[in-house]
Amino acid sequence: MSRYSAAEIEANWQKAWDEAGIFRAEPDPSRPKYYVLEMFPYPSGRIHMGHVRNYTMGDVIARHKLATGHNVLHPMGWDAFGMPAENAAMASGGHPKDWTYQNIADMRAQMKPLGLSIDWSREFATCDPEYYGQQQALFLDMLEAGLVYRKNAVVNWDPVDMTVLANEQVENGKGWRSGAEVERRELTQWFFAISDMAEELLEALDTLDNWPAKVRLMQENWIGKSRGLQFAFGLNDGPENFDRIEVYTTRPDTLLGASFVAVSPDHPLAKHLEKDNADLAAFSAECRKGGTTEEAMEKAEKRGYDTGLTVRHPFDTSWELPVYVANFVLMEYGTGAIFGCPAHDQRDFDFATKYGLPIIPAFLPAEDADPALTEAFVPPKTEPVHYVSSFVGDTWQTGAEAIDATIDFCEANGVGQGVTKFRLRDWGLSRQRYWGCPIPVVHCDACGVVPEKKENLPICLPDDVTFDIPGNPLDRHPTWRHTSCPACGADARRETDTMDTFVDSSWYYVRFTAPRADTPTDLAAADYWMNVDQYIGGVEHAILHLLYSRFFARAMKLTGHLPASAVEPFNALFTQGMVTHEIYQTKDTAGRPVYHLPEDVTDGRLADGTEVEIVPSAKMSKSKKNVVDPIGIIDAYGADTARWFVLSDSPPERDVEWTAAGAEAAHKHLARVWRIASEIAEGAVDAAPDADDALLREMHKAIHDVSTGVESFGFNAAIARLYAFTGVLAKSEAGTQAKREAARTLAQLMSPMTPHLAEELWQMLGGEGLIATAPWPVADPSMMKDDTVTLPVQINGKRRTEIQVPQDMPKDEVEAIALATEAVQRALDGGQPKKVIVVPGRIVNVVV
Ligand code: ANZ
Ligand code: ZN
Fold first, then answer.
1. Is pLDDT larger for residue 173 or for residue 10?
2. What residues contact residue 834 under an 8 Å CB cut-off, 6+ apart?
3. Strand residue runs (E) in 572-667
4. Is pLDDT of 99 > 90?
5. DSSP bridge pairs for 165
6. How far is CA 354 from the centre of its chain?
7. Which pTM does this prediction carry?
8. Which ligand is nearest to the Cα of residue 348, counting in written order?
9. Quick check: 362 and 343 in contact, CB under 8 A?
10. Cα separation of 740 and 732, whole Å?
11. How far does the chain reach from its first CA to its final CA, in angstroms?
12. CA distance 228 to 418
């Protein structure tokens, strides 16, 4: 018998699949289609275990669907634009394009040995001009449809690198690369009108039954629908044309607890006052520093500037409130002005404490509660509280009820309107970067902003750029930006902003349905393949990527690039857990941790004998060196072992801890299956088929459990069942025919997880054709039943013995057998039982 040599068989079978072209997807109306997609990778240059887990899960589903008669689309591509390529160019002088395509080649070469059932003929990278040119066409159609527009917006400006930073590039108010204090600047930027679809994007979440509830909730919170009151405070002695301050509140029930009004530094009133108030101007300038993120705003110390102005309370005009300019009020939300209620908002509480403003509760937790609060009282809106100073009277109500009642009251009294607002802002897509999709418009002095003509697409990035000085290379390119106006032909300038890379990933899943089409999509292909039936990826993309994709699907439908039948892009979503590993560390002389790669640690020691400290398992990360390179694992054990391991130990939504022992055990198991199957294959064939009930039963149970496990992301449960089946097969005394059939079934059931080993066993055991396309076995429920059950027999509530009876034996016969047992006979001592209770399949109770 030959040994299990993964290296040999894996390459062979990959070649065989390739030659047979079985993963090539073509529309075929006669078969049900199934589109499975894993979030496409960023070409960083190396695959990691997270990729292996993600793509293996998708592959298991794809292969199972193929074997169950589906026409499967399982593509792969590269999310290839973005900062790291430019950073690499800045650091080592190469070109982002070369860096990216080299990484793609490397990663493809690392991915292929995994044996994924991918239709590689559909591969593309988002930095291919063929892709981004179609994206430009899409952009132009969206521009025409009013889904894209320009406006001034506040951005994070790095004064040293002279560039706009994304929010995540601002660390503690400083530019991540330059370390310079980030400023807020107003620039003209391009925006997608995603907020126009806020209501629809929110409502359609209800239809996404096959998405994790937590992801739907995150999207709901991000869209952030709120109902509140918009009204104005009359302004006393304000500058000309300023006689009121409009505010938006979601807690109108706290209106009688108001103690100040605050406006954003970017509010027109603040800007007006700033003109002849140097102190205020300096204060506002200070506020404009620091990031624009809500999080940054949340963390920053709350500061205000007292303008000396006052407003009148709408319900008691003799009640005056001071007006501040405050750093925590955003111009982009509501009206850019608020009233503060320190009693019920911690931020307002801190502010009031700092500036000595009154703290007036509108409601309290109990009738006898002390109205002098030491912190803001912020109960859930669903909880009844005692209102003491509000328009709803001295009464117990929930916040939700009181808010509604107050809005009604205010509307009836002509003080403002109930309004619905969304937190979702329009999506700013302009990036002052080179390595992205150029925005296909031209600036003409005579005509203004003019869309490029479609026949001029793609507007390609110039290759001859350098990264030795900060700023956008497109801006300083000697010729690229000079062009002629598509409308009047005069000299004009190209837009030098490129698109946010989230745009690239918002429609790639449609492009996979017709990756070479000379329009963004091919409607017939999109109609056949869309929607994605199963999407798999990391929960870190739960908000933006998925929301943007949902927006794009709608925008593409509106612009005729998707058929009306496509609504939501992803029918089902699965968010997988991470691959973790222990962290090994020692300390340097200064006591700082020094990390060591798992491969350099044996039995808790380094090669020189130094003992390492073991820190509990965490997400694999290069900085902690707790990474295991999939390439090393594949070289040592083969892809099937890696695939089997990442699926086996934990439910796929949870983290899985990679251990050397676990990988070793997985490999041993696969070698054992190989041995068992080889022995069966080599055994002489018996004359008569000689089935074995226990083996058949285990086989049908395995078919059933693996099928349901694979369909419901219960891969670990499916694998547990396969271990059991293997154990029974190994011990089975059945005839060779029966064992062969069982071993072939075992191979089939393993084939989605360990496709190469499965093919080899299949061939060894006389299976026909490729196992990858062999029809999936079907479980016979009648074969799955254990035919006998063991029932405990209790006498007066105490377990005394047990009986073995056929599963479906009638109650009276079970009773007779129980009564006939020696234990019961002894207890009866010749008498009759008072009562006998038979719970079929469970227990027999005898009362004597
Ligand atoms: C008075 C009040 C009292 C508020 C109270 C809250 C609690 P959500 O619910 O997240 O939508 N707000 C309104 N516009 C703002 C802006 N431009 N910048 C910063 N804060 C702003 O947030 C709405 C609440 O956030 C509003 O309700 C307002 O403060 C504040 F006990 O008004 B509230
Ligand atoms: Zn012009």
1. 10
2. 847, 848
3. 573-576, 579-587, 593-596, 613-619, 656-657
4. yes
5. 156
6. 41
7. 0.85
8. 1
9. yes
10. 11
11. 62
12. 6
Closest CA to 158 of 147, 171, 149, 143: 171
Do β-strands 788-795 and 843-847 pair in parallel, antiparallel, or remain unpaired? parallel
* Half-sphere CA count of 405, side-chain side, radius 13 A: 15
Which of 225, 247, 250 to mutate for ligand 1's pocket (most ligand atoms within 8 Å of CB)? 250
Residues 612, 596 contacting (CB under 8 angstroms): yes
Q: What is the pLDDT of residue 559?
A: 97
Ligand 1 touching residue 336 (CB < 6 A): yes
Ligand that lies nearest to the alpha carbon of residue 257, given by its number in the listed order: 1
CB 641 within 8 A of CB 658: no
CA of 248 to the centre of ligand 1 (A): 7
Higher pLDDT pick, 93 / 95: 95
- Identity of the amino acid at 307: T
- Altogether, the residues listed in the chain come to a count of 848
Give the C-alpha separation, 111 to 565, whole Å. 34
E strand or H helix at 220, and its extent?
helix 213-223
Residue 453: pLDDT above 90? yes
Which pLDDT does position 689 carry in this prediction?
60
Mapped onto helix, strand or coil, the DSSP state of residue 261 is strand
Question: Are 80 and 108 in contact, with CB atoms under 8 Å apart?
Answer: no
Based on the number of CB atoms within 10 Å of its own CB, is 294 exposed (0-12), middle (13-18) or buried (19 or more)?
middle
Q: Give the single-character DSSP code of 156.
A: E
β-pairing verdict for 148-158 and 225-236: unpaired
| Higher pLDDT among residues 206 and 813, named by residue | 206
Which has more confidence, 98 or 626? 98
Secondary structure percentages of the chain, helix, strand, coil, to 5: 40, 25, 40
| Any atom of ligand 1 within 6 Å of the Cβ of 338 | yes
pLDDT digits (tens, 9 = 90+) for 153-162: 888 888 887 7
Q: Check residue 606 and give its pLDDT.
A: 92
Q: Report residue 191 as tokens.
A: 């925006």
pLDDT over 70 percentage in the chain = 98
248 lines ligand 1 (CB under 6 A): yes
Percent of the chain with pLDDT over 90: 73
For ligand 1, is residue 230 a contact (CB within 6 Å)? no
- Where residue 687 falls among pLDDT bands split at 50, 70, 90? low
Q: Which of 333, 335, 351, 389 to mutate for ligand 1's pocket (most ligand atoms within 8 Å of CB)?
A: 333
Q: Which H/E stretch holds residue 819?
A: helix 811-819
Q: Are 186 and 177 in contact (CB under 8 A)?
A: no
Residue 52 confidence (pLDDT) above 60 = yes
pLDDT score, position 629: 85
pLDDT at 20: 97
767 with 774: CB under 8 angstroms?
yes
Gap between the Cα atoms of 746 and 771, Å rounded: 11
Q: Which residue has the higher pLDDT, 90 or 573?
A: 573
Confidence of residue 692 (pLDDT cuts 50, 70, 90): confident
Q: Rounded mean pLDDT of the chain?
A: 92
The ligand whose atoms approach the alpha carbon of 446 most closely is 2
Q: Quick check: 361 and 386 in contact, CB under 8 A?
A: no
β-strands 534-538, 573-576 pairing? parallel
Could you tell me the distance, in angstroms and rounded to a whole number, from the CA of residue 405 to the centre of ligand 1? 18
Taking the CA of 442 as reference, the closest ligand is 2
Backbone φ/ψ region at 645: left (φ over 0), alpha (ψ -120 to 50), beta: alpha
- Note the pLDDT of residue 565: 79
Confidence of residue 297 (pLDDT cuts 50, 70, 90): low
Q: Taking the CA of residue 196 as centre, how many other CA atoms within 13 Å lie in the half-sphere pointing to its CB?
A: 11
Instruction: Please give all residues whose CB falls under 5 A of ion ligand 2, grouped by chain where several chains appear.
Output: 444, 446-447, 485, 487-488
Measured from the Cβ of residue 478, the count of other Cβ atoms closer than 10 Å reads 8
Closest C-alpha to 33, from 526, 772, 379, 655: 526
Taking 80 as the threshold, does the pLDDT of residue 293 lie above it? no
